[in-house]
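Milestone 3.1: sequence recovery, worked example.
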């Protein structure tokens, strides 16, 4: 229920602010607005205010502002000065651009408010990197605290959280740039500089495997046993809460994540293999035989020991002042916009998977998750979707705001509007492209939910 409510609020706010941008600038330019609707289809609620009918309609995936226009309905002589199509070119362009601009301005404010409120983030102390990955070759080790990053080795940006680090790595990977990392141990000692050679990934498809090849470790957690389930494999082996695991089958255990991976990978030919664990308990070293149990079937079968492994990752509060928060809002909106366009460009040339396109089911899921984490997280999510909506609507596709702006650019350069015949075919083509994109997004959503 909370997921559905968060999704409805997300759509309602973002659609309303987008259409309000169109509405507000249209009124400022003297255009008569006939209807302001959140949603499409059958009207569920309406209220007349002056010349404008405000409505909420059945289908919530969008909205519209209907203006007085000679191309849609006859216009009385005394109202011609209020018709959209008779306004100067710059005013028509401003009205169309105001919707996406409103979404981008909203994103700036949402990011700023979220940073003013502050969020509880995971400290950027990493576990063991993925074996054979760029991170491992760069020299990252379990327990490394990433203090700052740099693209050129001169200008360094402080890293405040794991999410912040992943964002910096994502931007560098999309741009095919090397990223320098300033790392220390978990206590802040023994500082050293490392180079994550993301240039070597240039031209590779952006997908889940790319993230694996980069190989940043999960947040660091000590390999210490937590709650042990009675009667489970861990309990039968004699493991107790508080035991620190030193080695498994003679191989040192660096962190909780790598220990969990070893347990899961203990299944061979459908049978969990016995493991020899060396643990430290109250200053003594013990050797224990652990027999994992089988969980799942076929290729998805993994080992389990029925115990919680590791401590919760260390967290920090990330909060900014009034000016810094607003600057952060502008910067993050710009970065997300640029990254969105980069991703779209890579999808067009086949360097990014079309599986990266998400639809309403994924948005609803993330809306619910962020809302459950707290208001500041939800505001950050809302800002992200608002940026995406603003950028998407500026794409030069017929039926989108960006398509109309391209018509006006043509009119400004040639001195004549796009012909009715061309408009007709462009609208049909745009509708087909949008239908294909929506179908692909929904297909990706269903594939994620079905585990494909």
């Amino acid at each position: 229920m909370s997921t559905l409510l968060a999704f409805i609020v997300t759509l309602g706010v973002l659609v309303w602010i987008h259409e309000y941008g169109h509405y507000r600038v249209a009124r400022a330019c003297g255009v008569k607005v006939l209807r302001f609707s959140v949603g499409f289809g059958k009207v569920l609620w309406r209220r007349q205010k002056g010349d404008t009918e405000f409505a909420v309609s059945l289908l919530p995936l969008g909205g519209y502002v209907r203006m007085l226009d000679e191309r849609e309905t006859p216009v009385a002589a005394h109202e011609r000065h209020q018709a959209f199509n008779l306004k100067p070119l710059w005013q028509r362009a401003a009205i169309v651009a105001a919707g996406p601009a409103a979404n981008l301005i909203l994103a700036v404010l949402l990011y700023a408010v979220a940073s003013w409120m502050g969020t509880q983030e995971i400290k950027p102390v990493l576990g063991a990197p993925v074996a054979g990955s760029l991170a491992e070759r760069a020299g990252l080790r379990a327990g490394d605290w990433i203090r700052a990053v740099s693209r050129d080795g001169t200008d360094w940006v402080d890293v405040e959280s794991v999410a912040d680090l992943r964002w910096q790595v994502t931007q560098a990977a999309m741009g095919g740039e090397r990223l320098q990392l300033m790392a220390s141990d978990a206590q802040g000692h023994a500082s050293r500089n490392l180079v994550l050679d993301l240039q070597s990934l240039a031209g590779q498809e952006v997908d889940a495997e790319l993230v694996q090849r980069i190989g940043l470790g999960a947040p660091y957690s000590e390999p210490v046993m937590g709650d042990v389930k009675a009667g489970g494999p861990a309990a039968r082996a004699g493991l107790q809460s508080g035991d620190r695991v030193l080695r498994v089958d003679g191989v040192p255990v660096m962190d909780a994540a790598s220990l969990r991976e070893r347990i899961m990978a203990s299944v061979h030919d459908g049978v969990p293999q016995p493991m020899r664990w060396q643990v430290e308990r109250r200053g003594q070293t013990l050797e224990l035989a652990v027999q994992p149990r089988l969980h799942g079937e076929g290729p998805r079968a993994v080992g389990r020991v029925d115990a919680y492994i590791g401590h919760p990752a260390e967290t920090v509060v990330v909060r900014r002042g009034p000016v810094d928060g607003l600057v952060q809002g502008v910067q993050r909106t710009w970065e997300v916009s640029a990254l969105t366009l980069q991703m779209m460009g890579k999808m067009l040339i086949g360097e990014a998977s079309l599986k990266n396109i998400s639809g309403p089911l994924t948005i609803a899921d993330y809306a619910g998750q962020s809302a459950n984490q707290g208001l500041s997280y939800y505001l950050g999510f809302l800002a992200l979707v608002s940026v995406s909506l603003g950028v998407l609507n500026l794409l030069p596709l017929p039926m989108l705001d960006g398509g109309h702006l391209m018509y006006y650019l043509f009119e400004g350069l040639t001195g004549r509007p796009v012909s009715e015949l061309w408009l007709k075919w462009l609208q049909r083509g745009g509708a087909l492209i949008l239908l294909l994109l929506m179908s692909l997004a929904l297909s990706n959503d269903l594939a994620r939910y079905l585990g494909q």
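DSSP finds twelve helices and 19 strands in the chain. Residues 148 and 159 are 5 Å apart (CA to CA).
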